[in-house]
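Input set for joint prediction.
Command: fold jointly, output C-alpha cells.
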Amino acid sequence: MAEHNGLDGKLMSIGEAVERFVADGSQICVGGFTINRNPMAAVYEIARRRIKDLHLVAHSNGQALDLLVGAGCVRRLDIAYGGNGRFAPTCIRFRKAVERGEVLVEDYTNNMMSLRFLAGALGVPFIPSKSGLGTDVVERSGFPPELRGEKGIPCEKVIVIDDPFGHADDEVVLLPALTPDVSIIHAQQVSTDGTVRIKGLTFADLEQCKASGAVIVTCEEIVPEDYLRLDPDQNALPPFLVDAVVVAPYGAHPTAVRYFYDYDPVHLNHYKAVAKDDEQWAAYLEEWVYGVESWDAYLDKIGGAQLAHIRANTVAGYAPGLDRR
Amino acid sequence: MAEHNGLDGKLMSIGEAVERFVADGSQICVGGFTINRNPMAAVYEIARRRIKDLHLVAHSNGQALDLLVGAGCVRRLDIAYGGNGRFAPTCIRFRKAVERGEVLVEDYTNNMMSLRFLAGALGVPFIPSKSGLGTDVVERSGFPPELRGEKGIPCEKVIVIDDPFGHADDEVVLLPALTPDVSIIHAQQVSTDGTVRIKGLTFADLEQCKASGAVIVTCEEIVPEDYLRLDPDQNALPPFLVDAVVVAPYGAHPTAVRYFYDYDPVHLNHYKAVAKDDEQWAAYLEEWVYGVESWDAYLDKIGGAQLAHIRANTVAGYAPGLDRR
Amino acid sequence: MSKPQKSAAGGAAAAAPGAAAAPVYTPREMMAIAAGRFIKDGDVLFAGTGVAMLAATVAKRIHAPQAHIFFETGGIGPRLEELPMAVADPRVMAFSNLNAGLVEAFSYVANRRLHTIAFLGAAQIDRFGNMNSTVIGDYLHPKVRFSGSGGACDAGSLASGFIVFMQHGVQKFVEKLDYLTTPGWLTGGDSRQHAGYRRGGPIAVVTNLCVLKFDEVTHEMYLAERYEGVTPEHIQENTGFPLDVSRATVAEPPDAEELRILRDEVDPQRLILG
Amino acid sequence: MSKPQKSAAGGAAAAAPGAAAAPVYTPREMMAIAAGRFIKDGDVLFAGTGVAMLAATVAKRIHAPQAHIFFETGGIGPRLEELPMAVADPRVMAFSNLNAGLVEAFSYVANRRLHTIAFLGAAQIDRFGNMNSTVIGDYLHPKVRFSGSGGACDAGSLASGFIVFMQHGVQKFVEKLDYLTTPGWLTGGDSRQHAGYRRGGPIAVVTNLCVLKFDEVTHEMYLAERYEGVTPEHIQENTGFPLDVSRATVAEPPDAEELRILRDEVDPQRLILG
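C-alpha cells >
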C-alpha cells in the first residue's frame, strides 16, 4: 500500500477550521472535562469570531463551557455539570448567564450525556439508563415546548418506560441520542495520515466524535504515520472520522494535557477572580480574546516562565510540586 | 499507598479456577474471536472435566466454541457465528451438533451479541439496534417457549418497537442484556495487583467481563504492578473485576496471541480433518483432552519446534512467512 | 500551610472550644475521618474532589488497603501521590490501574458484582437524603444556579450506597428541595425500590457537626453521632426539619495517627484541609 | 503455488476455454477484480476474509488509495502486509490505524458520515438480494447448518451498501430462502425503507459467471455484466428465478497490471486465489 499524505486538505489553521465547520446556531460539543484537555485554542477562536446562538451539548466541559457562555456564544445548553472542580464549584459566567436567562439549559447527568453521545456513535435513536428515576432531572425540562421538533432537540427530554423484558418496578429512562453538527477535541498527537492519539483519560471524546457530523482535532504535534502504527492499541480515532487537523501547541491551556503540561493555576485563579465581576470580565474578553490576534500571541501573554512551570514531568505526566492554591 | 499483593486468593491453577467458577448448567462466555485469543487452556480443562449443559453465549468464538460443543459440554447456545475463518467456514463439530439436535441455538449477529454484552456491562436491561429488521434473525427464535423465563433466558429473543423519539418507519430492535455467570478470557499480561493488559484487538472481552458475575483471566505472564501502572492507557480491566488469575503460557493455542504467537495452522488443519469424522473426533478427544493431564503435557504434545515456528515476531506481533495453508 | 486551630465543636461558623481532649482538630478533619470509617476493605469508591478524596485516601491507608478509588472521568485506581483538584486532574490518570472514559466509569458504578460507595455533596438535602445541586428558586428562573448533577444523580441512582458531605444549616437541610437532582430514599419506605432502583440509597450524612443516618424502615434521617462538644439542640436548630436525636451517641474523635496521615501524607499542601 | 490455468468462462464447474484474449485468468481472479471496480476512493470498506479481502486490497492499490479497510473485529486500516485467514487474524491488528473491538467496529459500519461498503457471501440469495447464511431446511431441525450471520446481517442492515460474492448455481440463487439472515431489498420497491432501514442494500452480486445488479425501482436482480465467453442462457440456467438479461454487457476482463498486483503483491502464497 503506497504511502500517501492523508492530511491533504485536512491540515489547516484554527481560523480556517472554525470558519468551515462552526456557524451561528450550530450544535457543537467539545472534548475534555473541566480542567483537562479542553480544546481552548478553538474555543478562544470561536469567541474571537463572536459566533453566536450555539447549542452546546456537554457533560462537564468546565473551562471551555464557561468561556463560550461568558463570551455570549451559547444560546442553548444540554449539560450535566457547569463547574471546574476546586477552581469553580459552579462555573461563574455560566451561573450568571443562567440566572439572567441568557441561556436555556436542559439538565442531564454525566452518565446520561455520555450515553447520549454513545447512542449517537452507535447510530441508534436512544439508549436506556437506570439513572434519575423519580428525580427532577427526569421529570422537568428546561427547554420550552415550542422548541421541540427543532433540529437537534428531541421530541421529549427523556421517556420513561416499563422495561419490556422485565417485571413490575422495572422502569427505565430512555435517553435520546445526540448527533451534533461538529465535535472539537484536543489531542496529544495526530499522525501524517490523520490518525489521532490521546494519552490519558478519553472522557467522552471518542463517543462525541463518532456521533458528530464533522470533527475538528487540534493537537500538540504531528507525528509520522509509522510511529502511530507501531502501537495501534493506543490510537483513538481513525483518519476517516477526522475533517480538520490543527496544530496548536499548548492548545488546551489553561487546562491540562497529560505528558505535555499541567493546568495553569495562575490563569485559572485569575479567570475566577475576573469572572465574578461583569466589568472585569468584559476587560478579560478584550484582553485575552478579542485583543489577541493568534494563539501564539495568547501564549506570549501567558509567558514562557509560566509555561515552563506547568510543563509535565516525563514520567508523572503532570507537574509535580506545582503550586496549585 | 502501601504495596500489597493484590493477587492473594486470586492466583490459582486452571483446575481450581474451573472448579470454583464453572458448573454444570452455568451460563458462560469466552473471550477472543475465531482463531485469536480464545482461552483454550480453560476450554480444554472444562472439556476434560466433562462439565455439561453449559449455556454458552458467544459472538464468534470459533475454536473455543467448537471444542466445547464437540466435547458435549454445551446444551444451549446464543451465537452469531460458528465458524473459524478460512480454517472452517462453518465450525465442524458445531455444525454436526446442531444438525443432530444436540444443542439448542438462538441466532443473533455479531453486533447484537456485542451490544447485548455492552448492555450487561452498563447495567441496563436492553439496548436498541437497527440491525436485523425484517429478517429471520429478528422474526424466529430457536429456543422453545417453555424455556422462556428460565435463568439466563429472556422473556423474548428480541422486541421490535417504534422509536418513541421518532417518526413512521422508525422501528428499532431491542436486544436483551446478557449477564453471564462467568467470563473466561486469555490476556497477554496480568500484574501483581490483578490489573489485566490485552494487546491487539479486545473483541468483546471487556464488555463480557463487565457483564459477568465472575471473571477468570488466563494469561501468558505475570508482570509487576509498577510496570502496568507506567502506561495505564493500555490496561483493559481493573483488579476489582478479576476473580481468578491463571498463568497459562501458550494458553490460547492453537489460536493466536498478538506479540506472543500466531495461530497454529498445523493443529488447526489436523483439527479440521479429524472433526469431520465421528470416530476420529472421539480419538482426538481421548488423545488431546481426556488423555492429557495438564497444559504442560498438551504443549509437549504440540512440540517445541512447532511452538518455535509460530512464535510472534517482536515488531509484527505475528509469525511472518509462516506456512498457513 | 496554616495549622489547625479549632476543634470540631461549635459548628461551622463558631470556633467555640468545647473539646477538652487532645489532639486538636478541625471540623473538616473530623468529617474526613468520620466518613472514612464507613469504608470497608474491598469497597470500590466513587470519589469526587474535596473532603471525599481525603476520606477515601485516609481509609485506604488505615483500615481498607484493598479499597479501590475511582473517578467518574475514567481514572481507575490511581496512586494519588498528589491530591487532584478536580476529577479530571491529570493526577487521577497517573500510575493508575487503567485509564478509561465516562461510559466505562459509570459501568463500574452500576456493576452488580461490586460494592460501590459514592461520596457526594449538595446544596440542599431533605429528610430522605434526596439532594439538590441544581438551582435555588424556580427551576426555569432560578435565583441561584449551581453546577448541576455531574455524576451525582448517577451515583445516587446506581451505586451500592452513598455518603454525603454537608455543612450544617437550615438553608441546606430543608423541608422541601427546590429541585431533586440526586435520588435518596425518595419519599421514604419502599419508594426507592418502587421507582425502579435495584439498590443503593444514602447511608450517612457527614456534616461539620455530626453524622446522620437513615432509619431502616422509614428511611428518615436521624442523628446517629454528634461530635464531641456539639449538642443535639444545636444540630436541630441547624436542621430545617424535625430530627430524631434519641439514638445519638458521641462520635469517636480522630486519633493522633489518623490526623498524622491526613495532614502529613494525604494533604500536606492543605489544598482541601484549608 | 499453482498457476492459473483456466479462464473465467464456463462457470463454476466447467473449465471450458471461452476467452480468446490474453491474459489468462481464473474466475476467482475475475471476481476479485470485478468487485474491486465498485470501490470508490474514500470508501470505508467492511471486509471479510476470502475474495473480499482480495477485492479491497487490489482496489486500494490500483484506483482507490484513500479507501480504508476495516474488520468487524475492530482492526481499522491495517497495512495487510500478509493476508489474514480470518477477520481476527493477528495480521488485521498489525501496523493498523487503530485496534478496537466489535462495538466500535460496528459503530463505523453504521456511521452516517461514512460511505461504508461491505463485502458479503452467503449460502443462498434471492432476487431481492436477501441472503441466507444460517440453515438449509427447517430452522428448528436443519438439514444443513451454516455459520450464521456473524456480522453479515449487521453490514446488510447498517452499511451504505454491500457487494455479494457467490458461486453461481440453482441451489444458491433461489426463489425462496430457507432463512433470511441478511436483509437485501426485502420484498423490493420501498420495503427496505418501510422496514426501518435508513440506508444501504445490495449494490451488486459478483459471481464466477457474471455481475448482477438491482433495478432502481423494483430492486429486482438483473444481469448487468457477463464475463467473456459466458452466455446469458448459461447464467439463467444456473439461477433459480427468472432473470432480466436484456441489459447485460460483457465485463471488461482483468488487465495485466491488475493481475500482476493481485498475484504478486496481494496473494503471493495463493491463500485465497487457490
